[in-house]
Amino acid sequence: MLFERVKSLDHILEAAQKKGLKRQLGAFDLTMLGIGAVIGTGIFVLTSVAADKAGPAMMYSFVIAGFVCALTALVYSEIAAIVPVAGSAYTYSYAVFGELMAWMVGWALILEYAVAAAAVAVGWSGYINGFLHEIGYGLPLFLTAGPFDRVLVPGTGNDSGAGLATAAGGFNLLAFLVSLFVTSLLIMGTGKSARFTAVLVIVKIVALAAFIILALPAVNSANFEPMFPNGWGTPLSGVGVLGAAASIFFAYVGFDAVSTAAEETKNPNRNVPIGLIGSLTICTLIYLVVAYAAVGAVGSQPGGELSLSKEPLAFVLREVGYPAVGNWVASAAIIALPSVVLMMIYGQTRVLFTMSRDGLMPAAFSHIHPRFHTPHIVTQATGLAVALFAALFPVATLADISNSGTLFAFFMVALGVMVLRRRDPERHRPFKTPMLWMVGPLAMAGCALLFISLGWGTIQMFLAWATIGLIVYFSYARRHSHLANHPASD
Question: pTM of the predicted model, to two decimals?
Fold first, then answer.
């Protein structure tokens, strides 16, 4: 039978106690980690993608994506407080749906975390390569983008993008190197990583605050017309407000990485919900104000200058008369974006660590470093994989693929919390999702809508990845599972 292997919640908690990670993170650490994971490539880079798909109506796209994430955060908070262990949606699915669905969720989380880390690394490399080019130390074009990406050939057009010629890249060296750098930080210890991230979070917030202060006075209502140049969009089209919302969703990805830190958190029943909801609330408010200022200051019609910019926030500031500050914002992105790569790799290693502890991944993935007390082998493997993805693929492709895995995992978590509320109503819930029977279905519907709005090409890639996951499960993971000969049920 496919669905007979279900872990009880008590069994999961007991296993974590036997082979657990050091608890060293507080509510402030988690909130900073959450903000560090969320604010990054999405707002610094993908704003131009949203402008190209939806025009000024991308404001609605931010609201839609943020609303879906807010609903999901409320659901996540309940299950994370009940099961404060590593593993995120994978662990929750194991307790509710059983091993097969847990495996599929864990397999999808590879898209959410590892592929997202690679996407952020590529976005960061675009900023740093542009900066090096400006100061006369640019790398050869072959080393600034992967073979599936395109690079701009210098001297082939003007700043508006008209008549520009591009060529295929070769190997994105800086994206590769930054991935290896943050991997080494994670190996040295979670506490060190949290402090490093907190510093970079401050840099990002200061940069966005400077943008808001300078761009808001330049807002002109005429720049919001026409508001809906591509309409609301239709499912599978990948354009319009819904298409932009599906892409912008990447700007919010990462808040659930807070839940993967539950096993390393002091007083997780209190601090995990604070970290989840606090970080998402702060980020959503920042995004809405930034988007409003960007659209109102320079306009954002599809095919316009903002939609063509690879550094949209810096572009806006230069256009409204603050070129020096615009360059500083670009520099802040260069300094701060590695924190997002760090949190994505962090989340991935904790999911794989837990899957290894269950026997579904190689046992070496759950080995703990004797000095640093971190899962060093799985961190090394994940970091190398992320570095290779970043070196080869473009940011837009990576972001959309990552979103597909994230939305699937979020959908399953929302469904799982409702099932658990019915199945085990007496269990102590330090945090209960308010109005669950309205919040849960809305979260599921929102995730489904954004998933089909990614476009048919991305959905096909997700289905191919899921098929590979099923093959791996039945050929390896199912036979090596710790529940294969020692089942644990509710």
Answer: 0.82
Tell me the two tokens of residue 38.
């969320």
Indicate the helix (H) or strand (E) that contains 50. Answer: helix 47-54
Which contiguous run of DSSP H or E holds residue 68?
helix 58-82
Residue 488 lies in a domain: no
Domain range for 47 is 24-480
CA dist 126 to 17, 110, 474, Å?
A: 43, 24, 40
**Strand partners of residue 168:** 150
Is 380 contained in some domain? yes
- Number of structural domains in the chain: 1
| Assigned token pair, 155 | 């001297």
Domain assignment of residue 142, yes or no: yes
Burial annotation 213-225 (CB, 10 A radius, 16+ → b, else e): ebbeebbeeebbe
Q: Say which DSSP state 431 is in.
A: S
Q: 150-152 and 166-168: which strand pairing? A: antiparallel
d(CA 64, CA 413): 19
Q: Is residue 72 part of a domain?
A: yes
Q: What is the pLDDT of residues 122-180, one digit of tens each?
A: 888 887 887 787 678 888 888 988 888 766 666 554 444 444 566 778 899 999 999 99
What is the domain-level CATH number for residue 134?
Answer: 1.20.1740.10
In the numeric block, the tokens 């796209």 are attached to 61
